[in-house]
């Protein structure tokens, strides 16, 4: 399954965040995968990094998947607006020039999602999210750090 789904037992994620140690390990796996893509020459931009595109193995490792929208970044420049709005960086939403750094924004949203077990920008329409993030500076709230 993907990181957005319930990991296999014995680590249920039913409406609550994963244990911090497991969450950090899974996020570190994702970060290593993205670091590899960005270290290539030329760097690869995933352009649709989100929890649904992070596959969880039976040993609870995470693998970056779905490279259908990925592109080589020969130089920062204007590219097509792609990806999922909840995870898209402001420059992508605005149709401005972007590079591999847009994946870092998406990774931050994935971190928020994993740490809160909530859907990013839940309750907002796609167009509202795009406008508020890109034009009005709307950001996800910093999640509270619990005892988990």
TrEMBL record:
One Pfam family named in its UniProt record: PK_Tyr_Ser-Thr
SMART domains, alphabetized: S_TKc
Keyword list, A-Z: ATP-binding, Kinase, Nucleotide-binding, Transferase
Organism domain of life: Eukaryota
UniProt-recorded Gene Ontology molecular function terms: ATP binding; protein serine/threonine kinase activity
UniProt xrefs under SUPFAM superfamilies: Protein kinase-like (PK-like) (SSF56112)
Record keyword Kinase present: yes
Domain spans labelled Protein kinase: 1-148
Name of this chain's protein: Protein kinase domain-containing protein
Organism annotation: Haptolina brevifila
């Amino acid at each position: 399954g993907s990181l957005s789904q319930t990991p296999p037992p014995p680590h249920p994620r039913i409406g609550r965040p994963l244990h911090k140690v497991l969450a950090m390990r899974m996020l570190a796996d994702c970060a290593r995968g993205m670091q590899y893509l960005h270290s290539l020459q030329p760097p690869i931009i995933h352009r649709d990094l989100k929890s649904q595109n992070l596959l969880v193995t039976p040993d609870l490792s995470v693998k970056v998947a779905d490279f259908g929208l990925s592109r080589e970044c020969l130089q920062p420049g204007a590219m097509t607006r792609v990806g999922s709005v909840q995870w898209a960086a402001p420059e992508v939403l605005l149709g401005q020039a972007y590079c591999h750094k847009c994946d870092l924004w998406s990774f931050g949203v994935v971190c928020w999602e994993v740490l809160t077990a909530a859907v990013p920008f839940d309750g907002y329409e796609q167009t509202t999210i795009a406008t508020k993030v890109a034009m009005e500076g709307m950001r996800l709230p910093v999640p509270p750090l619990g005892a988990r």
